[in-house]
Amino acid sequence: MDARERLTAAYGDVPPEEADIIVALGGDGFMLEVLHLPLARRIPIYGMNRGSVGFLMNDFEADDLLARIAAAEQAEIHPLTMTAVDASGQRFTAMAINEVSLLRQTRQTAKLRILIDGKVRLAELSCDGALVATPAGSTAYNLSAHGPIIPLEARVLALTPISAFRPRRWRGALLPHAARVCFQVLEADKRPVSAVADNFEVRDVVEVHVTEDREVSMTMLFDAGRGLQERVLAEQFSV
Question: Per residue in 27-72, pLDDT tens?
C-alpha cells in the first residue's frame, strides 16, 4: 500500500476545496507546485517527504498524523512577483516561492545591469546569471550559488550572482524586503538570457522586475521543534 492509500485508509479523504489542511506527499519540488495552487492562499499545507531532499517537508509517518498537525508550528511565507519583458515586447507575470533567477542561454556569458528602486547599483555584471531569493528559498538555489542563508523573519531578500566573471569579487547583496529589483539584459541579441520564477520560464528576456508581494501569504505547517525557522538556522551550522 502506498503512502497516500495508507493515509486515506486511516484518516479519510475530501476534495481539496473542502479541506481544512492539505497534506502534500512528495519532495520539495512537489511542495512548490502545491504552494502555487490558488488553494494555498487560504488552506495551510502540511508536507510529508516522499522525495529526495525534503527540506520543506516533514518526515513521513502514518501514525498520529492528527496529533502532529494539531501541534505543528506555522510558517507564513510571502512570494516574489516576477514581471519579465521578452525581445518581442511581450510581458509575462509569475509568482516565485523560492527565487527568481536569470540564466544565460548560450555559451556566451550574460551581461546584466542591476537597478534597485530605480537606481543603478551595478552598471554591468558579466556572469552565468543572477537570482533574487526569499528567506524560505535562501537554502535552495541561492545557497548553491554561495548566497547567504536568511532567517525567515529577517524581512530581507538575497540578490546573488551566479558564477560572476566581472566584477569577479562581487558576492551579491542583502536587500530590504520592499526593494524593487530590475535586471536589464545588455547585448540581448548576442547574449540571450532566460528568466525563471520557480518552474515558470521566459526566454529571450530584455528586462525583468522582481518585488515581494506582502499581500499574498501561504501557511506551511512543520512538526513541533522542527519549524522552518529552526531548519534555516540549523542549516547555517551544518558541515
Answer: 998 999 999 988 888 999 999 999 887 888 999 999 999 999 999 9
3-state class (DSSP) for residue 110: strand
Residues 40 and 57: their CA atoms lie apart, in Å, by: 15
CA distance 101 to 195: 6
Task: Examine the residue annotation and report whether 128 is marked as an active-site residue of this protein.
Answer: no
CA-to-CA distance for 93 and 208, rounded, in angstroms? 10
Pairing mode of beta strands 80-86, 205-212: antiparallel
Q: Tell me which of 2, 13, 20, 28 is the catalytic residue.
A: 28
48-55 CB contacts, 8 Å cutoff, 24+ apart: 48/3, 48/23, 48/24, 50/3, 50/25, 50/26, 51/26, 51/27, 52/27, 53/27, 53/28, 54/27, 54/28, 55/28, 55/139, 55/140, 55/231, 55/235
